Amino acid sequence: MQNNRSHLYTLMTVWFFWSFVAASNGILIPLFKEKFTLTQTQAQLVDFAFYAAYFIGSVLYLIFSRIMGGDILNKIGYKNGIVIGLLISAVGTLLFYPAAQTASYNLLLSGLFIVGLGFSLQQTATQPFMIALGPPETGAQRINLGGAVNNLGGTIGPALVSYAIFGSISKDAAANASIEDVKVPYLILGVLFALMALFFWVSKLPRIKNDEDVQVSNIVIGLPLAFLVLCVGVAVAFSIEIAITFTFVLMTVLMIGYMIYSLAGKSGAVQNAGSVLSYPQAVLGMTAIFVYVGVEVTIGSNLGEYLKETQNLDSSQISKYVSLFWGSMMIGRWTASIGNFNPSESMKKILTVIVPFVAFAIVLIVNSLYSGDVSDLFPYAACVAIMILAYFASQEKPVRLLLIFTALGAIMSIIGVMTTGKIALFSLISGGLFCSVLWPSIFSLGTAGLGKFTNQGAAFLIMMILGGSIIPVVQGKVADSFGIQQSYLLAAGCFVYLFIFGIVVQGVLRKQGIDFDKEVVKSGGKGH
Prior knowledge:
Layout: H1 2-35, H2 40-43, H3 45-67, H4 72-76, H5 78-94, H6 96-101, H7 105-132, H8 139-166, H9 171-176, H10 183-202, H11 218-237, H12 240-264, H13 280-301, H14 303-311, H15 319-336, H16 345-371, H17 381-394, H18 398-418, H19 421-429, H20 431-435, H21 438-447, H22 454-463, H23 467-482, H24 489-511, H25 516-522
Helix pairs in contact: 1-7, 1-8, 1-15, 3-7, 3-11, 3-22, 3-23, 5-7, 5-10, 7-8, 7-22, 8-15, 8-16, 8-21, 11-12, 12-13, 12-23, 13-21, 13-22, 13-23, 13-24, 15-16, 15-17, 16-17, 17-18, 18-19, 18-21, 18-24
């Protein structure tokens, strides 16, 4: 038990960088939009490049698994997969130097793409690793613990990168900043990636892998490869923006179609599965990850334009609000991680109230160091209180939590569209609170009962981080046509889909004799 806990803490360290970089994109997007004179749709290609890498990385993972005659991570082990992923990300940061020197938007996007490729492999290895360190029904709690560290990076990232680029908060700072100012922060990040790779290489992590023979079938490679070729073909024939819109429409049709198919299905346990795609929970999990990552990223990434249009702020002044969004993710995940420390029931209830406000205080302190006065963020404590009540109502049951939090996310998004001022702003930012614990719930439900196909299932779920590259660009297109505030109705629609997913996947798993909510009750909801 103690060894597993130390291994868990080691794995948590790499989570910090994933959100640090992702959240910092929210600072780069308005900067690049201004300096390169881009539309909101074009500026969102920052997210497209970064998150599309997860899809491409997962396709490459499957192709190389086929070439090697079996699942890569089953052969090299999770630990080595993390090390290689960190080194790939380090290489990506090196491109920021020539890209900034030549003021090349395309080269900057290429650097972010390679960083994302490394993250794809890191996440494919890390999350099944964490689930394997204890009972699968409490895997969501362990992933939440990693998520707590992940979003600490997301809270610090925007403030730190903003300080490194702008130096201060003022109209002059934004006007005087140049593309060359991104060089040093990202080169330092590359050095940190290399040091982390060395840290993992010498760590005492166990060599966990699945020893069962798992062949990568033609359909497992063929479907995503065909999808990729189709989308690239549309991009070449028309444009990247049309290809992104086409992908969104295609995914929407496929998601709704498979959801209906799953509702109509009456089969129980999957027999003689030929691939991970034989499991409906895996396919449903893929669609949910696509939508979840999309809504998480789109809320934060379009926030800069929202603040510019509704609050008259420039790119040097938005960091505390972007940080508050990603800090909201930290608030929720810190709350959900309490069970990992096995407190008594009475202490857990006390901590569930105290920890979110401690995390909120950290967000305020971090931002006060750069932004100065943060008193205008104090009313956001009301949103934190709503999240606490929702968490108590969920009783830490993965499906129940998913349903409550997605319902609240949809409601708050609609309030954000229908109102103005700080009520609208904080309602939209609170999407971070209600996204915060969805990933571990979806990931655990999507990989439940996959057995020897768990690694492939994880790769497919990581692949669908593609949603983070598609949905923000679609919102940017909606914003260019109808206005930035109205475009947040897309976020409400995403939360509604995830609510429906929770109902459907619960039914699918019960037909296979799996009920996560009951298992969590039996184990007392405690982490391992």
